[in-house]
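#onboarding

Welcome to the new folks! Below is a worked example of what a typical request in this channel looks like: someone posts a single protein sequence, and someone else replies with the predicted structure as tokens. Don't worry about understanding the tokens yet, we'll cover that in week two.

Example request:
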Amino acid sequence: MGIFDAITNKIKSIQQNSANKKEFHDLVLQAVADGQLTDAEIKTIGSKYQAFGLNKDDIKGLGVKAYEKAANIIMADGVVSDIEMDQLIRIQKLLMIQDNEISVIKSSISRIQRINRIQTGTLPSINPTGLILQKGEIAHWEEAANYLEEKVVKRGYVGGSQGVSFRLMKGVTYRVGASKGNLVSETAVVPTSTGKLVITDRRVVFSGDKKSFNIKLDSVLNLDMYSDGLNITDGKGVPRIFQFVNKLNTDIVGTVLSRAINNL
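Example response:
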């Protein structure tokens, strides 16, 4: 075999290996598209892996991509069942994925599982820092938060005049006096106290550096959840607005509070 033939065969081998890897990648991603792997799919994947003579370097990154695709399909309905979790474990083992490679997506799965447990009535029990509970009271959640209130942030006058002078005759000037106009105020919802929000089976307690109070759960008239906080309206019609320091916990706080109210 001449050098030209050797080079040609080498190029063909590289091209074939590239085609094999693409086919294998497509096969795996298609197999996990429904969030699970059947025995038949596992057998096919194993056969192709051996037939193509692939190694771990050839499928580097594929496992994480496949796991995330399957996990996102499973999490789409907001529920991760034990059966679905078993499927993800199966995918992880088959594709030789290390835990540290999928830590972010696993964290999202854990959050959904926690929310699922709370929604079905399994509320967590905690020991809140610095809060004395009432007899028989159970604390379920503690979250760092800012208490917000509507405050005047700017005052000023509109429609005012600095005054104008008119020359009537030599030595005589008529002046129209200056006017400040109308006083206007600009308001905004701003943080007025920083502290922690504790949810128990009886009340919502806010302990802040400048303000502290509690709201009985049986007096809550309305609850509005936002992407970074919540608004509770009590029996007197007073809105209490909170902004969470950790926005990622908003869905959990909302679920805990809703479940605690429903459990009354």
